[in-house]
Request: fold
Amino acid sequence: MTLQKMLTWLFMLMCYLSMSVDVSAQVVIDWVTVGDPGNLEHTVEHRDGTSGYGAMGYTFQIGELEITNDQHIEFLNAVADTDPNQLYHFAMGSSVHGGVT
Reply:
């Protein structure tokens, strides 16, 4: 058997094995807690006439990092089989910020 044939068979075997193994990754999101109940608002008035920033009456959690396309795709696949809430839009795959198809 020539080296080329052997490599071809090896490649075909690897393709077959990769199709038969579940390689889906579980998305892990690192969360951080934000908030300081009782924190008083800033009383300084800004140039635009606004004030009151900084008050936090409750705590909440938010992702430490931005969500990746892969994480968003896994979410869509998990909850939007029929997409009743219209979570996916075709522009997600074609805009410069897209990549979700």
